[in-house]
User: Fold this.
Amino acid sequence: LSTAAVIPAAGRGVRLGPGTPKALRTLGGTPMLVHAVRALARAREVALVVVVAPADGVAEVRTLLGTHGFPESKEIKVVAGGGTRQESVRLGLAALPDDIDVVLVHDAARPLVPVETVDAVAAAVRDGAPAVVPALPLADTVKQVEPDAAGGPERVVDTPERARLRAVQTPQGFRRDVLTEAHEKLADQATDGHGATDDAGMVERIGVQVVVVRGHEEAFKVTRPIDLVLAEAVLARRRA
Ligand code: C5P
Assistant:
């Protein structure tokens, strides 16, 4: 029995601005997706990495990954994704061989996650947790808002206690049977706009307890243009 990583990388990354699909944007000269695959393949636990590519980009991603080096003992597979992140993960899960019993789902958009974070998540699943998320406390206070019916500014309706909120990252780790069950039961929500924004959210919906391990500042998601500046700086510091 062993552990696989599924990396959804089929998003267009529109918030980052126009141009190449996000996973193929470069950081320090290397595509973000290659950084992400390396980060997961480096973890001792991980035997297989399944990359979920845009449906029209599978061949391109295979070529790209073929030209970059990964630890020799690690198998890398590329499959076609879907229209939402949830669908893409479901398609990645469907490509796993039978001997996989633990799955780590990791966003291609978090290319700089340290191997220690990957190891901590995998270890917590091996130690018996059905679902594990890495998370950090928030710097900002968070408000819940609702739109103004007349088209005016949004209105604040609640301020949750900051000390009890966490910003959740990836990789999120699961017992394979738990994650597969969640994706099967909730498949119809993937396309109707009520899809979960992370995998732990899905297993919560089927009543499974999720536990938290400490995340890492460098596991941030590259979403907006400013994140590229930060990611380049982190890489430069690592290489110094
Ligand atoms: O859009 P968001 O930032 O939540 O995307 C998180 C991850 O999900 C990204 O790595 C993105 O490539 C992936 N994704 C996907 N298939 C989609 C949409 C997003 O694999 N249809």
Summary: The two ends are 39 Å apart (CA to CA). The chain has seven helices and twelve strands. The first helix runs from residue 32 to 41. The chain has one domain: 2-239.
